[in-house]
């Protein structure tokens, strides 16, 4: 025989289960919304294929046309993409020794996405607070990750110096489609020009791209970059 007390216990149990399911459903919808929102923002802010081509045509930069670069990829070093470390730094796997290497993009700089010594210097240089810089850095990192997440292989073009003082590889990084990642970031407002001689091969192009993205208020410029 089921007593009123038993019914009450059962009702409380089912009520807790229903509440738990409701909470989980809210969390699921929230996560899904944020994911879609991030993808939407990425698509909205990063039609980099069209922007890239239009920029090249407007400035008559045939030497970096993806169609032409795609034919030259065989002369660059082919590597396997591994992961994004920062907006301007990635990790790749060398196809010859199967080892991991850090690659720092030549000629560009994104805000720091974590606390380190460079963040301290950037705080003094930009007069922005730590949280603001890291917030911008995380947006740049996410943008780079969105571009590279479906890339299996990348191609590295070197300049005069191949390594920096931290023993990272310095390179212009190309997608298999022939688009240069360094230029994509500057052109879409997620990196600023950061030229360190003697690696200056594309510095003038980067400066034009920076002026373009700043005028258009692309990417991080909307957040006071």
The number of distinct β-strands equals 7
Second CATH tier, the architecture of the largest domain: Beta Barrel
Distance linking N and C termini: 71 Å
The third-level CATH topology of the largest domain is OB fold (Dihydrolipoamide Acetyltransferase, E2P)
- What is the structural class? alpha+beta
Q: In the CATH hierarchy, what is the class of the largest domain?
A: Mainly Beta
Instruction: Name the beta content range.
Output: 15-25%
How many domains, as an integer?
2
Report on this structure.
The protein is an alpha+beta fold. It folds into two domains: 1-45; 48-223, OB fold (Dihydrolipoamide Acetyltransferase, E2P), CATH 2.40.50. It has helices spanning 4-45, 48-58, 66-72, 117-126, 130-148, 181-187, 203-216, and strands at 77-86, 89-94, 100-105, 108-109, 153-157, 169-174, 192-193. The strands form two sheets. Strands 1-2-3-6-5 form a five-stranded mixed beta barrel. Helix 6 runs parallel beside helix 7. The protein is globular. Residues 27-46 have low confidence and may be disordered.
TL;DR of this structure?
The protein has two domains: 1-45; 48-223, OB fold (Dihydrolipoamide Acetyltransferase, E2P).
């Amino acid at each position: 025989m089921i007593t009123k007390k038993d019914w009450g216990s059962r009702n409380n149990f089912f009520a807790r289960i229903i509440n738990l399911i409701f909470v989980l459903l809210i969390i699921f919808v929230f996560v899904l919304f944020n994911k879609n929102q991030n993808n939407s923002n990425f698509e909205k802010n990063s039609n980099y294929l069209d922007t890239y081509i239009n920029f090249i045509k407007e400035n008559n930069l045939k030497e970096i046309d993806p169609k032409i670069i795609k034919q030259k990829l065989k002369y660059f070093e082919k590597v396997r993409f591994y992961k994004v470390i920062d907006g301007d730094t990635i990790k790749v796997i060398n196809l010859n020794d199967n080892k991991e290497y850090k690659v720092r993009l030549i000629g560009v700089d994104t805000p720091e996405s974590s606390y380190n010594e460079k963040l301290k210097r950037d705080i003094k240089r930009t007069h922005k607070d730590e949280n603001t810089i890291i917030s911008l850095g995380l947006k740049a990192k996410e943008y780079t990750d969105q571009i590279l997440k479906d890339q299996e292989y990348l191609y590295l073009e070197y300049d005069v110096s191949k390594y920096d003082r931290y023993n990272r590889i310095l390179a212009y990084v190309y997608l298999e489609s022939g688009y240069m990642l360094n230029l994509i970031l500057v052109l879409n407002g997620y990196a600023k020009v950061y030229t360190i001689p003697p690696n200056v091969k594309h510095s003038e192009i980067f400066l034009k791209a920076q002026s373009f993205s700043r005028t258009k208020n692309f990417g991080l410029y909307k957040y006071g970059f």
